[in-house]
User: What shape does this take?
Amino acid sequence: MPAPLLSVLAAVLRRDLRVALRRRADTLAALFFFVIVASLFPIGVGPEPALLVRLGGGVVWVAALLASMLSLARLFNDDFHDGTLEQLLLAPVPLPLLVAAKTAAHWLSSGALLALVSPLLALQYGLSGEATLVLLAGLLLGTPLLSLVGAIGAALTVGVRGGGVLLSLLVLPLYVPVLIFGAGAVDAVQGGLAVSGHFSLLGAMLVAALFLAPWAAAVALRIAVE
Amino acid sequence: MRLADINWFHYAAPQRFHPLAGRLVPWFMAAAVLLTLAGLYVGFFVAPTDATQGEVYRVIFIHVPAAWMSMVVYLAMAFWAAVGLIFNARLASMLALALAPTGALMTFVALWTGALWGKPTWGTWWVWDARLTSELILLFLYIGYMSLHAAIEDPRRADRAAAVLAIVGAVVEHAAPGRLGQPDERAEHGRHDARGHAADGAGRLGLLHRGGADARARADGRARTPRGLGAGGAGRMNWGSAAEFFAMGGHGLYVWGSFGVTALAIAGELIALARRKRAAERKDSLE
Assistant: This one.
């Protein structure tokens, strides 16, 4: 008797989360990368508070983008190398849904953590309470987007020689709209403007990506594995 | 002969397309050379000097078409890549791959000539507004497409993976231009005007056309003011001497920097094409 759809998806989600928990080093490495990169900027541009307050939102967002991108490689590559990916492709479950489940697990073990740590970095940059809140909310909306769009890139480059750098090249241009609105929201609230527009657009992009990205990634996976 | 009798896919087979393309290429090259010469003549010797910008506005004659081409070629590339993916047509994917370097070159020329035009007119080489930023992103999309295709060894898999990337890029880059109006608004402390967004995005392409048309209109309309540099609006020969021609009213560096780099880019592309053709022929003769 074929297993019901939701329990299969839940199983995939649980498995990926368990793997991420066991490979704590990978998960934490991306997180520490995020913190280190964000800490490098004050060292590079000088610790003048006024400058850091203006830079903070953008720097944290860029660091989140880079950290998110680094962790994308493990989304499909590990499964590809041990044959699990082929089994997933053969499952009697729609591939886009499986991809969505894997992406959700990826986000929970990377992007979500980055978003939760961001208030500490906001503190380092001296951002106001309001700006920190906007940064946190923006990252909570934006990091799932990064995982979703990144999954397409990861699927396209699965098993490809030199995949890591190529993945960055492919995925960063696609990340730009998210960066523009996420960092733009922090900028706006610091300038006393409304952020509703930015969040509306981030939300709209997230909804569109939730629907379209797993499908595109599934197509890319089939191309890569067959 | 009825429309239904035509086999639209007759030339979709590479073996049939190859001789057809071979016959057409000399005609297209000849037309390109003639149109280039005509355009250069009109651009340098017929178009009068602009009253405010001087000679440097002539860079627009390259900048606008290059920018327009960069966007159209991307859409064409995504279209053919999609056809190749959906119908499993090898030739469509080959065409998409062939379009990519040309499109990337056009994008580079647009960015380069834009910078060289912007410095003397706007006072800056670069600014991070929506239009320039999205043109830069477009260059990255082209490079990503070519890199992905080159990284995958199996040609069919490469074609299809790159096609997915091209389509996703088209959705993100071309469906999002209206959204990218946001940073401009921010700079002007403007209101979140939905119409403003749409106008900026949809008008982005139009603006480029208008830029060119504007430059030409201003040149025609305002260059009636007598200038030291020979006949303003009426003359066929704008230049009193070769020295004046090369000086371009003090903007020689910008004008020749633009036209020169564009000429180099086109020459480079032709040389690369000739090299690839020789390599392919050599490979054929070995088999």
User: Anything to note?
Assistant: Residues 178-235 of chain B have pLDDT under 50 and may be disordered. Chain B has one domain: 52-286. The radius of gyration of chain B is 22 Å.
